[in-house]
Fold this sequence. Notes:
The complex is a heterodimer of chains A (about 120) and B (about 120).
Chain A: E1 4-7, E2 10-13, E3 19-25, E4 31-38, E5 42-51, E6 54-57, E7 65-66, E8 76-78, E9 87-94, E10 108-109, E11 113-117
Parallel strand pairs in A: 2-11
Antiparallel strand pairs in A: 1-3, 3-8, 4-5, 4-9, 5-6, 7-8, 9-10, 9-11
Chain B: E1 3-5, E2 10-14, E3 19-21, E4 24-26, E5 32-39, E6 46-52, E7 59-61, E8 64-69, E9 74-79, E10 88-96, H1 97-102, E11 108-109, E12 113-118
Parallel strand pairs in B: 2-12
Antiparallel strand pairs in B: 1-4, 3-9, 5-6, 5-10, 7-8, 8-9, 10-11, 10-12
Amino acid sequence: EAQVTQNPRYLITVTGKKLTVTCSQNMNHEYMSWYRQDPGLGLRQIYYSMNVEVTDKGDVPEGYKVSRKEKRNFPLILESPSPNQTSLYFCASSSGGQGFGRADEKLFFGSGTQLSVL
Amino acid sequence: AQKVTQAQTEISVVEKEDVTLDCVYETRDTTYYLFWYKQPPSGELVFLIRRNSFDEQNEISGRYSWNFQKSTSSFNFTITASQVVDSAVYFCALSDLDYLYNQGGKLIFGQGTELSVKP
């Protein structure tokens, strides 16, 4: 089954304690990205990757890091989490530039990670 | 700049009522893609539809229908005979060629509309 897998589903941590949210996709997609969802703001892109070892900032990258060492994995790293990073996080993948040209193509989302930073 | 506006923050209806969720978008591109996603209380994002800018045909899928009007830059979503299971947050989103080819297939999301269907 085609899917994007995020872990953990829920995470409570304290300010300053480094954490990693994992993301893996089994569709051999080139493009992967991270979004955060906040009330009244919808989802906003944090970082994206267009291939292995190619990453770039999205709209709200401050306080986050990512890496893309393998095609299937795209972890989100918070080196020193702060309370304003409390949010619902989604990982997403798609097949790339040709993707949206196909009638059935869309962005595949993981199930989300609810992060609370105390 | 690309933007998606869902002016209705919350809508409450009684079961079996029809309800329309509004979505207005802004983009300079002539080729773009519009999406609707459903987020039930469990939190995951469920893909509902993708519409290409060059296809203005309206679409119906069961009780769901979408009205795409380029003249008013709107992509509205109607649920006919709503049911309690339709209660969710609904997001409208936009992507264009620049986002598609240069920014990892980025979507610009609206703020979301929370629909509550009461029995």
